[in-house]
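[stage:ingest] chain + small molecule (2-acetamido-2-deoxy-beta-D-glucopyranose)
[stage:ingest] validated
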Amino acid sequence: MKLSSISFLSKLLILQYLSFQCLSTQDFHFFTFILQWPGSYCDSKLGCCYPKTGKPAADFTIYGLRPSFNINGTSPTNCDIQSVFNKSKISDLIEDLEINWPSLRCPRLNNIRIWSHEWMKHGTCSESKLSQHDYFQTALKLKKKLNLLQMLRDAGFEPNDQFYDIGNPLSIIEDATGLLPGMECNRDSAGNDQVLKVYMCVDISGSNFIQCPSLVDNCGAKVQFPKF
Ligand SMILES: *[C@@H]1O[C@H](CO)[C@@H](O)[C@H](O)[C@H]1NC(C)=O
Ligand SMILES: *[C@@H]1O[C@H](CO)[C@@H](O)[C@H](O)[C@H]1NC(C)=O
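[stage:predict] done
[stage:export] tokens:
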């Protein structure tokens, strides 16, 4: 008698725990939008592999759009294993995604594999706000809206292998948007910090940039902006 009531109680607790998890994963607070500079990614020890469509344009590529929590800045993942990636739902976006959201990983992956991975891991956690189609369309729209490379170039931060004070790219973005971005650097084989990723935050509508509640920042005082 006693044993079965204990196991009933623990089942109840497990059920409550699971339903709490489901609710909390849907209940994200903002998006983290991440762009990557291919010149830095390809200049790391691991190197890069171009997609079968060839060398991408010298522009930032989309790295991710992640629903995130205010409290701890973490991102919920894999929120709906039933919601499979379906290429035909984004057929009108494929051409644009090939250009703006390619995979540069080695060994070379079909871009579809990357989009499917991103949808399953992150996109399913914002399903309450964005359909599969709208998730990818939102990322593409955000990239165009930010127009990051142009913004940096206009203010003299050029991908020309030169070194800059880290404050330079940060204040260019802050002056242009009113928002301080996060920035992640990688090290090239000579030990130089290079601008690898730029993090911006976006409200849950997916259309307005907002100040990130916490900022990624692992760059040294001098950063290189490599050619690509
Ligand atoms: C972060 O916050 C969310 C929402 O409250 C919570 O579900 C999640 O477990 C937290 N993660 C960590 C690592 O604290
Ligand atoms: C993929 O989406 C299309 C268009 O919405 C739909 O007709 C098709 O049944 C879906 N395929 C799968 C495997 O869900």
